[in-house]
């Protein structure tokens, strides 16, 4: 019976045994090959991803809402005057420059990019019911006012005056070696009849390097800090940030407040004209800004995220204003 059962079963032939043995050997060889070269395969995988698809560029494509309307304000379209001692550009209507399209933006009323020659300046004059601050880019600016303040301001410093019921002041370049380059900014307060006040803050290049630094904040959102580099408290629905972005770097601004907001960006110029090629450049959405350019960002609301990417070949210094949409 044993013989019959054995003989009735199909016995493996020599050729079948050889094929199965070869297949097993091939499988073992493939496993050994894979294990031997696995580190090399893993190391080569990142190279299959295009270098341009960096985290920053992916973030830039995905975080700025497509519903935002971004309108470029070219540097050369601003009001401009060359008085010899003063070389200036006006984002909004100012002095001899007037445009009904550009009178203000929310509470923001003035952004003048000024260069004042050595040994000259703005003589004593008066203001009332305005918030006025100077952002020093280079050189030295002397501030003197009717409150008894006398101070020399240098790069990184921001001098803020709440004119309130009225002040008199002068801004002068006493330095005999270099011109002073600064941004003069005005906003309308949301409270009138205040006592005049004066504040100075300092924000170094290192503080602003590749990140946004809050320079000025509405008193409604201010945390009460009063240090050399804490945000300036302002009686207006305005937040202002500053940054110096290296080429290829990006930052994100989360829109403050609630409801409809206005956002404006201004790229600081390094010379009296925008470079014909290269220079500092920023990308906001699909809009590219060069030196001296600005951008109105409409359609934003509190909590929205705006990505700003440096796409030029030089560091890009810029200011960002986040404001209530209502004009004061």
UniProtKB/TrEMBL annotation:
InterPro entries listed in its UniProt record: Pirin (IPR012093), Pirin_N_dom (IPR003829), RmlC-like_jellyroll (IPR014710), RmlC_Cupin_sf (IPR011051)
Polar residues bias (residue ranges): 227-241
Record SUPFAM superfamilies: RmlC-like cupins
UniProt entry tagged with the keyword Nucleotidyltransferase: no
Ranges annotated as spanning the membrane: 21-41
Region annotation Disordered: where it falls in the sequence: 219-241
Family indicated by similarity: Belongs to the pirin family.
PANTHER family: QUERCETIN 2,3-DIOXYGENASE (PTHR43212)
Protein name: RmlC-like cupin
